[in-house]
Amino acid sequence: MYSVLDLFSGIGCFSKGLEATSHFETKLFCEIDEDCRNVLKKHWNNIDIDMDITTLNPIGNFDIICGGFPCQDISTSGKQIGIKGSKSSLWKQFKRIINEKEPKYAIIENVQNIKNRGLEEVL
């Protein structure tokens, strides 16, 4: 069984998909949106949900860290400020946690326009 840390969890789609294979178990969520946290609690009532990625210091090791950091500054629907915008710059917190925890795998999701608005910095 692979352990999962789900960051920028939303309503838990990464975890739901991974767990559907019966090879993964989510150990911790991190999600700031209250409505999303309520959905997570409904489906994973025994798993902790941290609210603030900037102060998150997860205990233990994780085989997989997954998530989709905020896209508002990157998306063609927004102002396209880029990866350094106040919301999309949270990818640095994602990177910090990956570097600290050194998982076997990291799954990172974002909008297609990231290739024009900061992908080289993320990679």
From TrEMBL:
PANTHER family: CYTOSINE-SPECIFIC METHYLTRANSFERASE, DNA (CYTOSINE-5)-METHYLTRANSFERASE CMT3. The keyword Transmembrane helix does not apply. One of its GO terms (biological process) is negative regulation of gene expression via chromosomal CpG island methylation. GO terms for cellular component: nucleus. It holds the Pfam family DNA_methylase. GO terms for molecular function: DNA (cytosine-5-)-methyltransferase activity; DNA binding. Its EC number is 2.1.1.37. NCBIfam families: dcm. The keyword Methyltransferase applies. It comes from marine sediment metagenome. Keywords: Methyltransferase, S-adenosyl-L-methionine, Transferase. This is DNA (cytosine-5-)-methyltransferase.
